[in-house]
Every structure is written in C-alpha cells, then in structure tokens.
Amino acid sequence: MNVVVVESPAKAKTINKYLGPGYKVFASFGHVRDLPAKDGSVLPDQDFEMLWEVDSASSKRMKDIADAVKSADGLILATDPDREGEAISWHVLDLLNKKRVINGKPVKRVVFNAITKKAVLDAMAEPRDIDVPLVDAYLARRALDYLVGFNLSPVLWRKLPGARSAGRVQSVALRLVCDRESEIERFVSEEYWNISALLKTPRGDEFEARLVAANGKKLQARSVTNGEDAGRLKTLLERASYVVESVEAKPVKRNPGPPFTTSTLQQAASSKLGFSASRTMQVAQRLYEGVDIGGETVGLITYMRTDGVQMAPEAIDAARLAIGDQFGARYLPEKPRFYSTKAKNAQEAHEAIRPTDFNRSPDRVRKFLDGDQLRLYDLVWKRGIASQMASAEIERTTAEILADNNGEKAGLRAVGSVIRFDGFIAAYTDQKEDGEPSDEGDEDGRLPEINARENLAKQKINASQHFTEPPPRYSEATLIKKMEELGIGRPSTYAATLTTLRDRDYVTIDKRKLVPQAKGRLVTAFLESFFTRYVEYDFTADLEEKLDRISAGELNWKDVLREFWTAFFAQIEDTKELRVTNVLDALNETLAPLVFPKREDGSDPRICQVCGTGNLSLKLGKYGAFVGCSNYPECNYTRQLSSEGGAEAEAGGLNEPKSLGTDPVTGEPLTLRSGRFGPYIQRGDGKDAKRASLPKGWKPEDIDYEKAMALISLPRDIGKHPESGKMISSGIGRYGPFLLHDGAYANLESVEDVFTVGLNRAVTVLAEKQAKGPGGRTGGTAAALKDLGEHPNGGKITVRDGKYGPYVNWAKVNATLPKGNDPQAITLEEALVLIAAKSGKSGTKTVKAKTAGAKTTKTAAKPKTAKAKTSASKTSTAKTSKKSEE
After folding, report:
1. CATH code for the domain defined by 191-255+392-467
2. Active site residues
3. Contact between residue 504 and residue 362 where contact means Cβ atoms under 8 Å apart
4. What's the topology of domain 139-187+472-581?
5. pTM of the prediction?
6. Do the strands 669-675 and 678-683 form a parallel or antiparallel pair, or are they unpaired?
7. What is the pLDDT of residues 233-277, one digit of tens each?
C-alpha cells in the first residue's frame, strides 16, 4: 500500500477512486505549517533561519499521515503543480522525516495538470524528486514577505496612526491605484470639437464621414479646440459640394487569442461576468477539483494558477476534432496553432487553463453545474476552442471624400468594416475594459456601396463639442493586467492582494472601479516619501525576476535575501529618528490636492477660514489622520480627510460653520460644523459648547433650524412612568436611539422615534425589554458575535455584545470597542492591540493559554503599556506576510 498526499479533501476523494485499493489518499488541507505570528520567525542574523509552526488541526492531520506511512510501502506527494504545491510537499516530507517514519521508503513527487483518471495515472507513471530550486524560490518569497510585513508595518503604526499594514507586493499595487487617482486630480480637461457630415449616395443610402483635413492642413482627432474654428469649418462644409476621391477595400485577418492564463481569466470574468478576482478563483477551484457528472466526479478544467498559454498536444487534437464536429470544416485551420507567453517574468511553465475534455460542451454539463460554475466553464470552453479555430476574415473599407466650396477645400473620411467570415468569433469574442474595441472588428460600422468619382448629396453637418476626460480608475481586471505588464507579483496571488487592500480599507470598489481611500493614500504617500525604493515598480519587478532565477537554479536564495535585507534594515533603522512633524510636512506636500482642495472663492486653501490666521495641516489622531488648525485650542476647527472630493466630502462639504439661528432660551448661536468624526450641531462657542453629531442617515444639506434644535436639546423628556413616577427620556447614544428609565435602557427602532415616541409606547417598549431579562456581561457569558481566531499565546479571541456595548474577549480580558466601531468589522490585528492595551492600563493579570480551550494560568502583566502594544503589533504584522500577502 502506498500513501498519497494531495491538498484538498475533494481531490483526495476523487483520486482515491482513480488509484484503487493499493493506495490511500490523504489531504493536507493546504499548508501544514507556517511561520508563527511572533518576533523571530525569520532570523537574518542566523543566516535567515526560518522557524516553522504546525497548528493543532494540521498536527492532527500530519499524525494521521505519519501513522499511515509507518505501515506503507512508499509515499507519493501529489500536491498542486506550482510553487506553493511544491512547498507543501517539501513541508510534509520534512515533518515526516522529523517523525522518523520514512526509514528509507521510496518517496516520489508527481504532478498532474487536471483531475481526470488519465491525467492522474499518467502522472503516477512519471514520478520525480522534489524540485529543490522551486522550494528555494518559495522560501525566499516567504522570508521576504515576512520581513517586509513584520518590519515595515510597525513603522507605519508608530509614525502613521490608523494605518494597518504594508507588504512587498500589496504596497506597490496600492501605489498603482493611488498614482492613478493623483493623475485624475491633476488632469485638466481640454475642449475639442468633432465635425462630420451625413452624406447620401446616388442610390439613396446615407452614411457619415468625419472631417480629416481643411485648407491643405491635416486635422487630428482633437485639432479643433474652440467653437469659433468649429463654426468656420461647419460653414465651409454646409456650402460645399462633395465627390468621392477614392474607395479602398482591404481584407484583414483577425487571429484568435490564446487560451486563458490566471490573469486573463480573471480579466475576462470581470469584463463579461462581473466576477471579482477572488470569486473567479473560487469558482475555478471547484471546476478544477471536480464536479459530480452522472455519478462520477470529474475535473472539468485544468489547473487554474498558470502563466502558460500552450495546450498539450492531445488537447489541441481534441479541440480540433470538436471544432470540426460543432462548427464545420471551414472553421478548422490547416495546422494547429501554437502560442508563447508574453508575460514578463513568467513563472513555471504549465498548460493554459482549458477544458479537460472539449466534448463536454457547456450545454452537455449545464444540469450538473450551478450558475457561477456554468458561466465560468462556458467562458473557459469557448476561449479554449476558439484558440484553435480559423481566423476571422474582415473587409475594411475606407472612402476618401473631397468637399469643395468655391476653391476652399476640405477632406472627409468614412471607414467601415464587414465580417466576411466570422471564424473564431463564432465561438468567442473579447469584451474589453474601459471602452476598448472588441474582437469583432466592426466597431466602425458598415458602409453602403460607394464608388469612386461619384457625387454625394449633403444631408446634414454636425459639429459637436467635447471635453477630454481623465484616465479611468483601475478596475480589478485592469489593475491585474497592469501588474502583469510590469512584472509585479504573480497571477496566482493577485486575487489575494486585492482582497487584502479591501480588507485594510485602503481601497473600496465603486461601480467596479478601485477607489483609494484616504487611509490608503496616506500609506502610499508615507512609503513614497520614506521608503521610495520599496514601492518602485522597477525595483519590485527586478526582485521578482531574481526570485524566478532562483526557481531556475541560477541564483542562491540566501544571497538574494542578504542583498535585500542589508539595504532594507538600514532604511528601517533610519526611520527611528523620524519625527512626526517630518512625516506631516512630507504628507502635506505629497497629498496637497487631497488635503487642501481648491476653494471656489480662490482663497488660500491652507488658511483656516474659521479663525482666519491659523494654518491648516494634517494631524494624526488615535483613529487616523484629519485636518486641523494650528491655532488649536483657541480654534478647534477640524475636518475629516476623505478620498472623495477633498477633505470635506465626508463631513458634508462644510468648509466653515454654517449659521442656523439662535437658541431662544440660552441666546447662543446654533451652527452646523464638520469635525474629525463627521458633521455635527454646536450650540455656543469654546470648550464648553454643547455638541451633537448628526445621526446616521441625516444629511448636512437637510438640516434646518427645527432639526438642529431638536437634536441639540436631547435627551428629550417623554413623561413620568405610571408605576415608578420617574421620568422616561429618549436620546441617541453610542449604539443608536434609546429610552432611559431609572437607569435601565431600551432600544428604539429608529432615530425618528426619539422625537415622536409617546408615553404609552415608551412604557410598553421598556416592559418588553425587561421581560427579556438582563443581557450583556451580567447574568452569564454573552454570546459571541464573531470569532476572530487564536491569540498567539493560545485561546480564542471573540467579539461579544455586553450590557455596555460590544467588546473583545480573550480568556479573562474584556476590552471595550472604541466608540463608533462596527463589531462585525473588527479584525484580529485590532483586537490584539485592544487586548494588550487593556491588560497594561488596567493592571490586570495577563492570561497565557497553551491551547484553545485549555486551562489558563495567570502571569503578571508587563508594567509598560507601550510594550504590550508593541508585542501585539508585532504579532498582528506577521499575519500580513502569509501566502495571501505576496
């Protein structure tokens, strides 16, 4: 009996059926060990020794594998055919050797590109050894990502509060998005005019021709830049006669593109299906691992993490047979098509993504697939079969037309395309991003019959005004395409990189476009100012090339690490002397369009409009950056920093306080203002002024005197409770609208209820709340709202809802969430910082648990809060350097 190790249980089940009783297949469930989330997991001073850790779940799985290997005849490592798969096999073998269960038994490494019986059996017949250079490349990448994330992220936390993390590829991808936003901000729109004529042939057919020359001068697409020139040219054409000078019909052949790679599949799925990169990879994974078709589990596509564009010879033959059967002989070219990759620094050569069997057309497998699976499989099948089909034959016709107005001449051109034979377009057509032309080739439209030297009748002259537009924001698809062009990262990790940027709130997606948030732009500006080299596109691409050369056996992986670490560590050390004022000065300049947007009145955007003398500048607070006045505390003007429309956008576009009237009781002015945490109402001036934030859903532009008075007057007395005789009041608190009676709270359904609820309804709501019994931290343990994962010292970290609001729980430490934080949005990194701060500030004893669920033992807390925070910060940074952080 031989033991076979694959990555997923779905693959294990399918492959076990293919191999029969002589084999026992186990799943590793991905990586079986990783660098622990603590300082010292990679040791540069000890020749980059890497200290690996096996979690409890993987430990159990490895024990099962080890027990099976003890009585087995041999071990077959059959993990995925890429760098990560090679690394998993290396980890498994290393652990089994340490357990001393191999004992000279044969160990084979096999790879298959598809989970079909033939592919698996063919691979078993051609075993090899573990590819050591490929493993070295993995180790180098893993160490680099860990060292960058673990050392750079704490610098961000110390110098740029609110920043979450930085990464070797993550930060460069973010820079691309932020640089495009800066281009858009700097863009100056220019006027131009398009001039065309609607003409009619002697046979009565109409077509449109565009002005391309006038008075002996050629006109480019945007040569006419003002209405005056456009008017003169329009007058010329309106008075002119028209004759066809020449007609040229030119046949053009359009060839199909290659089958999908990882990145082109992600781009096409985004354009055609609206899938995110991560969604595409999840669906592709299921198609690769296998689908139950008529009682048999079959992989429908080949491995989906690849840079290769070539198909195996047998797959090409199958595709050609399917083309002949389904489309006809004319759609089959004389010879097979062969492709070569154009991607910079393409990694290990694999097959392109293709169907495992071209006879399984989308219609034949439709009933076995869910909606997403069918749509993606349809895309893969059509692209794969189109890649071997005949070229499309297109006739492109160009007519040159002369307009003559008593010797004043102009030239017009009409262009049209006609598909004479659709070829591969019958199976697949591209849909490009951002208005690029499609593969059909008829984007110019079709022209009627036009003959040289014949006269044309003028129908109408059109002169339309246009303005140039800024470059479009990146979509996931176009960002992936750009990263691939620059050689940044690897297609297999693009989806994870984009997910990280969203999870860190560095970017958001609006109408499928990536919009950098203020936090992301601050991080990019900081790195460009103080770590310039490490966010340069060429530097990152050159490092990728070195990593690829390691996998080819051309470079030593530790030599590459030493070269990188020496310069990087020196840069990190230099930032220790960096003062926050230096950081702010640099950010004020780099992000000037964002921090100091132009004012309509043309006044200096850096001068405070409230006090008139203070200088506005970025300020760094506990929850991130905001804009404040240099005259604080005399002038308490602040505003949020927003990625949309300048610094005031999130605060409702308020540059200065808006007067709403006067409180009739106190005589104090009532104003609408914008602050660090959004728009608010203020009554009076100075430190003692009363303030009330606008409730969720209330827009600044809708606030009038009545609403402002109602809000600033809260809490509102409703009436005395008929039983206790004590007052019932309503208000808006940290967790929304509420009722208060004798120290007991009850939630109201909406903000409007706060101002309208009557006494009878209030008594009922309070009684219903009392009937439910006490909640929160009294009367038992609160139910967990969210499980965040394991603490580095052991034990689960959860988010719970207590009497006084949501809090983070670990062992016996309860840390209240900061005001305004969504309990469902809290991350493990943030929870670790809160727990460390709570332990240090309260002087309570920190709990150290060996494993989740184990009995806890008390140890004295570290006396310095800062130390506790640093420890937690380092812990969370390591998380950023895992496989998804590449």
Report:
1. 2.70.20.10
2. 303
3. no
4. Topoisomerase I; domain 2 (1.10.460)
5. 0.69
6. antiparallel
7. 999 999 999 999 999 999 999 999 999 999 999 999 998 998 988
